Amino acid sequence: MATTAISSPGKVLLAGGYLVLDPAYSGVVVSTSARFYTVVQDLDEATTVARAKADRPIEIRVRSPQFVNAAYTYLVSFDVDGVHVEQVADSASASFTKNKFVHLALQRTIALAIEARGAGTLQNRLGYGLDITIVGDNDFYSQRAQLTSRNLPPTLASLSQLPPFNHTGVRLPEVHKTGLGSSAALITSLVSSLLVHLGVVARDSFDNDAEGGTASASEGRRLAHNLAQYVHCLAQGKVGSGFDVSAAVFGSQLYTRFDPVVLGSLMKDESTNEALLPVISPSNTAWNYRVEPFKLPPLTRLMLADVDAGSDTPSLVGKVLKWRKEAATAANAHWDALDKVNHALSETLLKLSEMHARDATAYAKAVKYLSTLQSVQHLDQWLAINPNIPPATQEMIDIFAEAHRLSEDVRAKMREMGKLSGVPIEPPEQTELLDACMSGAGVIGGGVPGAGGYDAIWLLVLDPTNCPPQELPSSRIEGVWASWKGLDVSPLSASESVAKGVRLETVDQVNGLRQLLDAPW
Ligand SMILES: Nc1ncnc2c1ncn2[C@@H]1O[C@H](COP(=O)(O)OP(=O)(O)OP(=O)(O)O)[C@@H](O)[C@H]1O
Ligand SMILES: C[C@@](O)(CCOP(=O)(O)O)CC(=O)O
């Protein structure tokens, strides 16, 4: 009974919101330690024998055990037109709920697998069916209600007390998402696990960590990317920038979008019979997205908080793009200026990693020193030459100061864009919160991720070694969030993903996963 478990990370767009929709610009994307997991299992022998005896069709059962009423059953049939994946009522209930994302992922991946391996081989591989379990780390869904019901304050310590893959207590459409890109991570893990399980890509396709961007990525990883982008676009009914799927596949990166033309013919009709492989194949040069390596510097920690006010991202995007069209000259000048700062920020952060590689001791000293400054708000304090600081450490302090300045410049330009377009990209309530976080020791940068609004904030804080926990900059930030009155701020436990992008998992090494798999359907 073969099992395939695959995970893929969520995302945070630190810089490049809106701009990344245009291939002339790029986005700085960090993938998160919060991941989606898909486990595909062959049926056990007893079920296979029973289904064979009853001459049952191929049946794929999918469940999302964190939700009420989230089990879906599909029948798979083959004819001259290709493959049909049709949802049927679950045996336990007369009715069924639909999940377009899951349905299209199954349908399109099996269709592509037939093209790659032939209908006969695939039919054999599917046998009488598959069982699929999908779960997302707690950070993808707001845990406020769970914490309240346990009488726990919204802190990182409280979050660590919740069971892994905690039941949300609601149906999928009612869940409060946190903006980490649940649908992109879900589609990527589901599509990738099926590609591996059905033998379309090798199990070791996701071994190399794709740190060098697309150039060093395996063909299997690139195929999974193209297919996940296609399915995600189809399910969302539009071709977005795709940075979320790209982060789920390749990990943290500087992302430049692909031309939507590549998906043109396939986007017209959800149940198209058109051959997928010629379009989806990594050898199709129309896939012109660019993934350049990016990672956060050592001894820093990404902190994320969900802000319970919420914004309607599509309407923010609509208004900003309308402004860009109407005030093209001013808007384009603003986008160029913002893009320059976004690039400078990512380069400066990468330079810190280089500095660490060159001299880890001096780097650690710089981090320690900066963490002890009472306030890093004033650049002069960051830059003040202290005769006791060796020049190598001072040089690194200067680069941290530059990252701080650039991050503040990104914020200023995002606020300006908001003002010009009449959109609350960094609304005053968020400015107040971010300023309070930035004004204390050890914060390199911060802002509103992605499209901005009232949804969330990110901060990059120093994380020195050998420091008492209560003196860590992250502890101070937690204090600011816990006592904040203007907005309801709830921390997420995710930081940057150590592994790059989509990866193969061993079920027993993922805390809490075995228990969910062993639970009855
Ligand atoms: N655990 C899950 N199991 C099955 N499907 C899921 C799961 N989580 C999310 N989905 C699918 O993803 C859809 C949500 O996609 P949508 O594009 O609205 O969110 P999103 O933009 O990715 O949200 P966010 O970035 O806040 O996580 C759901 O309607 C559902 O079809
Ligand atoms: C505004 C936009 O550039 C970013 C939206 O990001 P987020 O979902 O708010 O993280 C849209 C997109 O890139 O799809």
TrEMBL record:
SUPFAM superfamilies named among the record's database cross-references: Ribosomal protein S5 domain 2-like (SSF54211)
Keywords: ATP-binding, Kinase, Lipid biosynthesis, Lipid metabolism, Nucleotide-binding, Steroid biosynthesis, Steroid metabolism, Transferase
Pathway: Isoprenoid biosynthesis; isopentenyl diphosphate biosynthesis via mevalonate pathway; isopentenyl diphosphate from (R)-mevalonate: step 2/3
EC numbers: 2.7.4.2
A Pfam family reported for this protein in Swiss-Prot or TrEMBL: GHMP_kinases_C
GO MF entry, a single one: ATP binding
Domain annotation GHMP kinase C-terminal: ranges: 409-462
Catalytic activity: (R)-5-phosphomevalonate + ATP = (R)-5-diphosphomevalonate + ADP
GO terms, biological process: ergosterol biosynthetic process; farnesyl diphosphate biosynthetic process, mevalonate pathway; isopentenyl diphosphate biosynthetic process, mevalonate pathway
Family that this chain belongs to: Belongs to the GHMP kinase family. Mevalonate kinase subfamily.
Protein name as catalogued: Phosphomevalonate kinase
